[in-house]
Write a structure and sequence with these properties.
Keywords: Membrane, Transmembrane, Transmembrane helix. By secondary structure, the chain is mostly helical. Helix content is 62%, strand content 0%. The radius of gyration is 22 Å and the shape is rod-shaped. It starts with 17 loop residues before the first helix and ends with a helix.
Length: 48
């Protein structure tokens, strides 16, 4: 490893699946927003 700037010499230490990372992030955010929506609707009905 003489040339530290050569990307071919660097091993990918942690292979990632970018699509699944994005999909899981979207699903998690969607779930949190759904829970917030349901709680807000319940509070609205309790108030009125």
């Amino acid at each position: 490893m003489e040339n530290v700037r050569d990307p071919r010499d660097h091993v990918n230490e942690e292979p990632r699946d970018d699509f699944m990372d994005t999909a899981m992030g979207f699903a998690g955010f969607f779930g949190v927003m759904t829970i917030i929506f349901i709680v807000a609707v319940i509070i609205k009905f309790m108030i009125s």
